[in-house]
């Protein structure tokens, strides 16, 4: 029983050390999981002479999930990325192009003085102003 207590104490100490390092790493970089799910229920009162209940998806907006992140490089500069994928809420499959991250997939550099430069699949710049 004494050996179990020693092993448990060592494991607890290791977890504490990892917690300190993860807090330090978190201060310098970030990754965020985000998304939007648009699902609803549709009622038709005269569908072939009967009433009908249906599950409806993406009626008002697109259904998607994504990852975005930044890594501080110092001097006011960050490395950034964004990956976003649309999916069909009715069956869980991909909504377009049958590929993962079919909406957005880009990397770039962001600087406080010079602005942002990104490369990859992204929306038109007009979308930022809508």
From TrEMBL:
Signal peptide positions are 1-27
User: Keywords assigned by UniProt?
Assistant: Cell outer membrane, Ion transport, Membrane, Porin, Signal, Transmembrane, Transmembrane beta strand, Transport
Gene Ontology terms, MF aspect: porin activity
* Membrane topology, record value: Multi-pass membrane protein
Q: Show the Gene3D superfamilies listed in the entry.
A: Porin
What SUPFAM superfamilies would the database entry show? Porins (SSF56935)
Which cellular compartments is it found in? Cell outer membrane
An example Gene Ontology CC term for this record? cell outer membrane
Q: What is its main location?
A: membrane
What is any one GO biological process for this UniProt entry? monoatomic ion transport
Every Porin domain range: 17-128
Record note on quaternary structure = Homotrimer.
Q: What is this protein called?
A: Porin
Source organism: Paraburkholderia dinghuensis
């Amino acid at each position: 029983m004494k050996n179990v207590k020693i092993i448990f104490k060592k494991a607890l100490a290791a977890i504490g050390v990892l917690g300190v390092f993860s807090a330090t790493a978190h201060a310098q970089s970030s990754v965020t999981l985000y998304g939007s799910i648009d699902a609803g229920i549709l009622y038709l009162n005269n569908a072939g002479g009967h009433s009908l209940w249906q599950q409806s998806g993406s009626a008002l907006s697109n259904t998607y999930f994504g990852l975005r992140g930044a890594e501080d490089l110092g001097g006011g500069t960050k490395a950034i990325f964004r990956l976003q994928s649309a999916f069909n809420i009715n069956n869980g499959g991909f909504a377009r192009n049958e590929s993962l991250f079919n909406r957005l997939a880009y990397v770039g550099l962001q600087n406080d003085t010079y602005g942002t430069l990104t490369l990859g699949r992204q929306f038109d710049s007009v979308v930022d102003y809508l």
